[in-house]
Amino acid sequence: MQVDYVIVGAGFAGSVLAERLASGGKVVLLIDRRPHIGGNAFDHYDDAGVLVHKYGPHIFHTNSKDVFDYLSRFTEWRSYEHRVLASVDGRLVPIPINLDTVNTLYGLSLTANSLPQFFESVAVPREVMRTSEDVIISKVGKELYEKLFRGYTRKQWGLDPSELDAQVIARVPVRTNRDDRYFADVYQAMPKHGFTRMFERMLDQPNIHVLLNTDYRDVARLFPRAQLIYTGPIDEYFDYCFGKLPYRSLRFRFETLDEKQHQPVAVINYPNEHPYTRVTEFKQITGQRHPKTTLVYEYPSDEGDPYYPVPRPENAELYRRYKALADATPNVHFVGRLGTYKYYNMDQVTAQALTLYARLTAGRSNGKTLTSVPSASTLSRVAPVANREE
Ligand SMILES: Cc1cc2nc3c(=O)[nH]c(=O)nc-3n(C[C@H](O)[C@H](O)[C@H](O)COP(=O)(O)OP(=O)(O)OC[C@H]3O[C@@H](n4cnc5c(N)ncnc54)[C@H](O)[C@@H]3O)c2cc1C
Q: Whole-angstrom Cα distance, residue 355 to residue 376?
């Protein structure tokens, strides 16, 4: 078989590139070592028949019309605005912090006008913003930091906010009104029939050959003339020659209950006393009607699949060494969350893949390239720190 591109990884990065390249006439071999397409966004029906996200809840949101329009070629959407509550002191309060969060936790009746003064009165000024702790307490004070951020961050990262760089949480999302939507993006919607269905439609082309349960090492050498697009971990590609890039992982515990609805909103965060960080009820996100409901509990851990690059300066430095090696490796393109060691949302990875496609085909006009592709950095970037996760 004549193959122009071998693409490693059938998640957003690999699948978008496969679709674009195949639409432009290239023959693509798309491989994944997992038994399914979709990468971390894979969803499926569990034994009870409830649509669940195997690798934790994935909510689509973006400010990019280009990304939304591109993905809309492969799915219809269901409007969905995400809402999250945090369980604190036996009460459920909105996240991100808004007027109701403060009034409930402090037993006050502040208004949108008086809330900024309240924050000023509790904030602890810091001259230098060195750590994430500095950023949070200089904005919302020690008490909200302790109740909502500190424990969550410790669980999520295995690190105290005082050990995490300030840039990790450059901005603490705080609202002075009662807006309780988790995201403020222009486009907030879920694929009407799920992510996997969307990927199936994306990859449904004669020029795309999908090979599952296959590691790239077992096939790459069979296609010496093909270009390689690699969306797996960059350090693994180079046999960890500079050492391992650290990742935080998650263990998921699914539970199906014999009731229609269990939680008041899709996600409840548990910043403090519980071993898990959050519990998600899928039906509230997918809109599925079913007499039963399935929840997932998330337990952060150092062991397991690589999910979150650990945002510390020494890790960024280690990545830079791998990146230099990657730049010096001809005919191999690194892209996606693991290929570039970045916490990127689905829309950002889509944009990154479209940008790479535009670069690969620069100078060649096939009439199918998107005219303007937003750079990943201009999109809504939310680092999964403190009490703001994805
Ligand atoms: C718990 C969690 C929740 C998230 N929630 C959200 C959310 O709500 N909204 C949002 O926008 N984003 C969310 N994200 C981010 C989202 O998952 C990513 O943006 C997106 O899935 C990244 O796509 P990708 O293609 O870069 O990587 P992946 O989806 O990780 O795909 C990479 C693929 O490469 C394969 N692979 C790796 N190495 C090899 C190899 N050697 N051989 C063969 N195959 C290989 C892997 O098996 C994998 O399938 C979340 C992430 C996590 C972990």
A: 9
